[in-house]
Amino acid sequence: MPNIAVLTSGGDSPGMNAAVVSVARTAASLDMPLIGIKRGYNGLINTEGKWEDNFVNLDLNTVLDIADLPGTYLRTARCDEFRQHEYRVIAANKLREMDVAGLVVIGGNGSFAGAQYLCELGIPCIGIPGTIDNDLPYTEMTLGYDTAVNTCVDAVRAIRATSRSHDRPHVVEVMGRDCGDIALSTAAATGAEILIVPEVKWSVDEVADKLNRQLQKGNPRATVVIAEGAWNSMEPFDVYSFLKPYGKQVFEGEPMTSNRLASVLKRKCGMAEVRSTVVGYTQRGTTPTARDSMFAFEAGYIAVNLLRKGIGNQVIGMKNGKLFHMPINEALAVKPEFDLRTFNIINAL
Ligand code: F6P
Fold first, then answer.
1. Fold for domain 3-131+288-332?
2. What's the pLDDT tens digit per position in 197-232?
């Protein structure tokens, strides 16, 4: 049987290890030797040094205890060189030299674009959508998204408890790059009163008005959930001119942040305090939920079986809860559709 290989690429996401375990178990059951590539595509192009620096034989013993390990055992990286054709050729040649007949790429859209290039160079690749961002619209769920949402939900619930104790509002920033899905699901699951996402333009004044309306309705402890990408959909606001007179540490030209938005809202709404929290990397470095692990196990199985049949240039996704596969270029061309209806329900008041 020829070798197959697997790598994780881009930002780590919960469930990547479970997918690697599934690929390893399926490969072992089919007697296909499996090579793990370290640090994403980097492991294929910077191959000086010892073989073990960049590769690992993934037998059943190697992956015995990693299924529910947070992070990625294979390590990961974003590989800028892969934008250049010459490096893709180096990678394809390296795979051929190692007698690799197919590669499983676990990562997001940039990683999938890399997989597509390798397919064009004759290396069959199968993509598993590993990213917390849920920004691959061809699939209703990416691997790691469910865990990231649940991490944010736990964080917001804890924050709402302390907000309730002190009767003060709170701004909570969550990840998601240009996609507001993590923020949307988090807000819906926690009863947050104000939601700000990259997909919908917004202004600081409008958010201050909403917060004021909450105060007038007798709620002095509303939660504002903001997606990190929403700083790009904010109407221009001169945070320096607004906060400087209050003696806040802000320099001209510096961007708006959650902390500064909380400071601005405090003043615009005449509150004693408005606090802020950035949930950050806890969303990525968390043990995968059972839902993510199920997705990972099924996707790994499908990926290896496709490669065994000589099928490449596919990505695996989920539709109505069932896994399917489709060509990489078609998947990457699917346009995002944000759930405006739920967004409007959350922001109704
Ligand atoms: O793509 C996952 C993600 O966590 C995004 O939500 C975030 O914008 C980005 O990665 C952060 O990347 P880095 O790991 O380079 O800081």
1. Rossmann fold (3.40.50)
2. 999 999 999 999 999 999 999 999 999 999 999 999
Task: Tell the residue nearest (CA) to atom 15 of ligand 1.
Answer: 11
pTM over 0.90: yes
CATH architecture of 145-284: 3-Layer(aba) Sandwich (3.40)
State yes or no: pLDDT of 1 exceeds 80: no
Q: Is 42 in the pocket of ligand 1 (CB under 6 A)?
A: no
**Ligand 1 centroid, distance to 282 Cα (angstroms):** 12
Question: In a 10 Å sphere around its CB, with 0-12 CB exposed, 13-18 middle and 19+ buried, how is residue 18 labelled?
Answer: buried
Q: Using alpha carbons only, what angle is made at residue 251 by residues 246 and 256, rounded to the nearest 5 degrees?
A: 85
- Every domain of the chain and the residues it spans: 3-131+288-332, 145-284
Mean pLDDT calculated for residue range 323-333 = 98
CA distance 252 to 25: 56
Angle at 140 between CA 191 and CA 136, to 5 degrees: 105
Q: Tell me the C-alpha to C-alpha distance, in Å, between residue 194 and each of 97, 108, 231, 255.
A: 55, 29, 15, 21
- For residue 319, the cross-strand partners are 322
